[in-house]
UniProtKB/TrEMBL annotation:
Residues 1-40 are annotated as: Disordered. The keyword DNA-binding applies. PROSITE patterns: HTH_TETR_2. This is TetR/AcrR family transcriptional regulator.
Length: 217
């Protein structure tokens, strides 16, 4: 007759309930750390944006940002290895604000071109409330070697306004190509405005002509 030995349970081995409690505790601890890290990152980005709004990129000295955010300089560098990484994060935050604004109040223009221009002009007005910050963001797009998804996000915002959800539109689709081109036109128009060489009304007129020509089939 074969005798099957009962498994030995030692005092060092947690029971099933205790192990589950420990895993739950570890998950909760990770959740708290994750929220804390998210809040710390948000403070850093907000501090950088506030400095840039008063003095442009030059004012965004890493030590000054760390002091304003209430974090150690080493902590700041763990989140953002370079100043341009930080600038790109500020750009992303501004796009987040624009996306939430578009979701709350979608463009109401009667045509795809009109809705697309409304998106771009709302971005223009939002940025120009803080000209120094706007200049810092535009400069970062032109000069930074750090990869940013700014063009992709602006393209998707315009496509969503023009034709609806943009997720199913292929990368080589004419509509996506046109929207990306309009994003580039808008960036150059913003430079003109920041230099004092164009007003918002002039920029809107140019964008309307460009959008009408490109989006009308």
């Amino acid at each position: 007759m074969t005798v099957t030995a009962e498994p030995t349970v030692t005092g060092d081995e947690p029971s099933g309930g205790a192990a589950a409690d420990r895993r739950a505790g570890q998950a909760a601890g990770q959740g708290v750390r994750s929220r804390s890290q998210h809040q710390r990152r948000k403070r850093i980005v907000q501090a950088a944006a506030a400095l840039a709004s008063r003095g442009g990129i030059e004012a965004m000295q890493m030590r000054t940002v760390a002091e304003r955010a209430g974090v150690a300089l080493g902590t700041l560098y763990r989140y953002f290895p370079s100043k341009m990484d930080l600038v790109v994060a500020v750009v992303s935050e501004e796009i987040d604000l624009l996306e939430r604004s578009i979701e709350r109040r979608p463009p109401r223009g009667g045509s795809a071109a009109e809705r697309t221009v409304e998106v771009l002009m709302r971005a223009t007005r939002g940025l120009m409330r803080e000209p120094e910050l706007a200049e810092a963001l535009i400069r970062s797009l032109l000069l930074s070697d750090v990869k940013t998804d700014f063009s992709d996000r602006m393209t998707n915002l315009m496509l969503r306004a023009a034709v609806g959800p943009a997720g199913d539109i292929p990368a080589d689709d004419r509509r996506r190509v046109v929207a990306r081109a309009l994003s580039s036109v808008w960036t150059m128009e913003m430079i003109e405005m920041l230099r004092g060489q164009a007003t918002a009304e002039v920029i809107q007129g140019r964008l309307e002509i460009s959008a009408d020509r490109l989006l009308t089939d």
